[in-house]
Structures are given as structure tokens and as C-alpha cells.
Amino acid sequence: MDKDFFILDNALKDVGDFPQHQVMSLDDEIYDYKASNSVHKILPNSFLDVIPNFNSIILSSRIVLTDKISSAPIPWYVLIVSDKLLKILESFNLPPYRVYRVPVLHDDKKIRGYNAIHILQPEDFVHEIVFEQSKFWVTSLFGEEKIEELQINSVAELEKAYQISKSENNLVIRAEYFSLRKKFLEKMDLFGLFGTAFPVKFYISSGLRNEIEKAKCTGLRFIQRQDWEEGYMTFPRWSCVLRLE
Question: What is the DSSP secondary-structure string of 193-226?
């Protein structure tokens, strides 16, 4: 398989304060996080029936404007990106997504050309898991202590393990590594996963990464695998392993 995958993450250097976007309203305003159109109501698996209230992406004078802006109040599966970066993303294969124009205030000045792109987790991606090439553990909810290795061979068994873990205090199911079918990966260039079993991350193909780097887009970094053995793609933290079939 020609595609390689990496973790897409926020840049930590040359951005000013991190995260760059920290508040949804100015001192004399109140942002209603409980409202039906609040950014906190945006879900990873479905779109809102209303247009989310992005109000203003308020950036202080200490912030460096970049093509991807890291955000504290906006969920991780909504990316704040420049027109340039959005154009590149939309030229590749993505799961279902929606784009919203967002107002940006940088040092009290209005900045044009930014968007929020809400990318859904691929529907039923668990059916693309090759279970005989994946490993799951019961772990502590807080921390990464491995308690028991699980023998999971199907989606039904994974769902059953989820239900059992819900009845136990402070125990969750996590993937030490997991394998996705080649056909699934071939039709994806950027996809996000969420939940306790899988790393809450975006995975990006080498082709999309190359185009982003060629365009010299800023505000992003790509976490590479540490090793390549027997088809494993290993990333720095233990629960962040993607394996190619």
C-alpha cells in the first residue's frame, strides 16, 4: 500500500499562546454554551440542525495568525482553517463535512478568510477493523494502566465489551493498536476517531500531508510513527497505533 498515515496535530511553536483561540466572547459579552447552536453542541457523528454560533474567533495580540488555528472552546473535530488550507483539504477524500465561514478578531482587528470545517467520524468505521490484527485492553479510566488483554474478534464482541466496561467503575476499553482494511484507507485522506477505545485524533495521509507542506501552510504538525515492523504504524503514545492491512 502506497499510502502512509500520520497524526495531524496542532503546532506548538511559533503560534504565540497555545491554544491560540481561548474565548468565544469579549469581556462585555456572554457566550451561551448551553444554547442549541453553541459550539459545545456540535457532535462528532452528526451535524447540527442549526448553524453553530461561532460568534468571533477572538485572538489576542500575542497570537501569530496561522493557516490552522488551535482552539480551546471549539471541539477537536471542528478545524479552524484558512481559505488556502480549506481548498487543499477539499481536494482530497474526506468523510462527510460541513464548512462555515467564521469571523476572526485578531488584536481587535477583523480578519477575513477563515472557516470552520466540521468533519464527521467515518460512519460505522468499526466494521472496517481487522480484529485479528488488533489488540484491546481493559485499562483504568484515569491513567494508562493495562489491567487485562481482551480477545475481541468481531464488532459484536467489541460492543459487548463496551457494555461490560460501563458497569465497572473507572474501567474502559482501549486499543493498543488496531488495523483498518485497505479498501477503507484507500478512500480516505483525513479522518478522525473519538471515544475511549480509540485515540481521539485525526489521521492524515502522506499525500495530503505533502500538499499541505508544499503550500507551506502553518499551524500544523505531523506526528510520525516511531517504528515500521510487520505492517505496524506506531505513534509516540501507546494507544495511538494504526496498522495497515
Answer: E-SSSS-SEEEEEHHHHHHHHHTT--SEEEEPPS
